Amino acid sequence: MTTTKQQRQTWSSRLTYVLTVAGATVGFGATWRFPYLVGQNGGGAYVLLFCLAMLLIGIPMILVENVIGRRLRVNSIDAFGDKIQDKGKNISQYWKILGYMGILGAFGIMAYYMVLGGWVISYIINLISGGLDISEPITKDVAKNFYELHIENSPWEIVGYTFLFVAINYIILAKGIIGGIERSVKYLMPLLFIFLIGMVIRNLTLPGAMEGVSFYLKPDFSKITPQLFIFVLGQVFFALSLGFGVLITLSSYLNKEENLIHTAVITGFTNTIIAVLCGFMIFPSLFTFDIKPDAGPTLVFQSLPIVFSHLWAGKFFAIVFFGLLLIAALTTSLTIYEVIITVLQEKLRMRRGKAIFFTLFGIFLFGNLPSILGDNLWKDVTFFGKSIFDSFDFLSGNILFMLTALGCALFVGFVLKDEAKKELSPTPNSLFTKVWFNYVKFVVPIIILVIFISNLI
């Protein structure tokens, strides 16, 4: 373990770390999932609860995973090992089960996440080639027919596009955590911001845009219920990539002088800002062209092409929009892959190239292919009434991530104790550190248990 620590690289600056974490936590959570959930759950009411949930559970849990990750600066399994330095007492090996659960969760999410990337590439290519012609206004039926023909009923086409997305990840990952991921994120994240701001400005200048802004920002307090708030708390875990080792892995490359509190606040704030901006990118245009915002998961893929077909230079803006989705997906997929790759390198002593191949090919073969075929050729194969695609989503998002996050909070509160405070801050007896520690130890586990139980009933 000592050798691993000595060889471990560190981020070149706080900015590059924050950009990488922002990329890891933005992804489809902000650009695809957040907007459709807002549309389904009362607009401004959901946005308000999301911001509150980020403060109540998001930032405290970012700090939990940062403390665990930087403490030993190893992979997301061994991060739960070693000993308590002050007492010289070995930590039970059973805590490493949390790391293995995180790996299973990472596999589960990547099993379907990469397929969504394949969908996005399909839209980009068809927009460029004219396979999806939006030079003239299209109807709901046209958008739906394209989705059914090219997404649901063209499995081998999606297999090819998903493989292309995996190959892009492979090329970047092969250059390493710093040379590949960090260097790519330096360019990808600013590009994502430019695309995002451009789309927001375009949509806010549409006639009737303010009606969409009102729906998006003005809370309907009658829609705020305890059940909705619990649901939103759960979505924050997905939005911040909590519970499957991403933040533990990324923070293991942080130097010991870095201020974890500052980086956690910046991470939570950045994720919230990007998610909120994505809403401004979508809802004004929906209301301008009288399209219902409650389309659910198909909002981006079936409703927005109709919007773009009504816009001046709609094809250009559609390509920019789906390009933005692809960048967001890429910055997230790179970091989730890295969780598993780092484990293979450090636990099995695999060369990086071999670890990358096993990770990407294994997930493609046993995750991506079943997810794609589960919507058509294997549509009769279900688990607890859910398709293969939805089963991966449910198991990873509602069970594995929640249990892993619960375990992380308990590990910090009841195992690391004072060591966690010292890792968090050079002033472990400060008011903030004491409040955070007791909140994580006693309150956060209750919140997670409530979310977990509500997801199962």
UniProtKB/TrEMBL annotation:
PROSITE patterns (UniProt xref): NA_NEUROTRAN_SYMP_1 (PS00610), NA_NEUROTRAN_SYMP_3 (PS50267)
GO cellular component: membrane
Transmembrane regions listed in the UniProt entry: 15-32, 44-64, 97-125, 158-178, 185-204, 224-248, 260-283, 316-343, 355-374, 394-416, 436-456
InterPro entries in the record: Na/ntran_symport (IPR000175), SNS_sf (IPR037272), YocR/YhdH-like (IPR047218)
Keyword Protease part of the UniProt annotation: no
Subcellular locations according to the entry: Membrane
A single MF term (Gene Ontology): symporter activity
Cited CDD domains: SLC6sbd_Tyt1-Like (cd10336)
First-listed, main subcellular location of the protein, grouped into a coarse class: membrane
Topology class, membrane: Multi-pass membrane protein
Record's keyword terms, sorted: Membrane, Symport, Transmembrane, Transmembrane helix, Transport
UniProt key word Cell inner membrane: no
Similarity annotation: Belongs to the sodium:neurotransmitter symporter (SNF) (TC 2.A.22) family.
Protein name: Transporter
Native source organism of the sequence: Haemophilus pittmaniae
